[in-house]
Amino acid sequence: MAPERQLVAVITSFRRGPNTQNDREVLLRVEGVTSVSEAGRLVGRKVLLIDSKGNRFKGRIIGVHGKRGTLRARFTRGLPGQVLGKRCLVIS
User: Fold this and answer.
1) Is residue 1 assigned to a domain?
2) Is 66 part of any domain?
């Protein structure tokens, strides 16, 4: 069996609209992914975020956002605002 490949992603923003913000869905920028086709291969993978207090947030990549390889991820519970700009793991 091949070893599990982990990618590092940065949380860039919450998914938001003109008047609302969804704190369960975030936009991720995965290092090394620059196109829609590369990002499309990551849809369905799991995401793990561990904050400074040791809290674990689990989520899943649900789609591609835009044309430059940004991804949308939905977590099981809402994320605090302090996670913006933090790193998380994309697990196969």
Assistant:
1) no
2) yes
Asked if residues 39 and 33 have their Cβ atoms less than 8 Å apart, the reply is: yes
Q: CATH number for the domain including 55?
A: 2.40.10.190
Give the count of domains, the chain: 1
Q: State the residue range of the domain holding 47.
A: 6-91
Express each pLDDT in 15-71 by its tens digit: 999 999 989 999 999 999 999 999 999 999 999 999 989 999 999 999 999 999 999
Q: From residue 84, how far is each of 2, 25, 26, 40, 79 by CA, in Å?
A: 32, 12, 9, 23, 9
Sign of torsion, CA 41 45 50 55? positive
Query: In the prediction, which pLDDT does 56 show?
Result: 96
Kindly tell me if the per-residue pLDDT of 3 is higher than 90: no
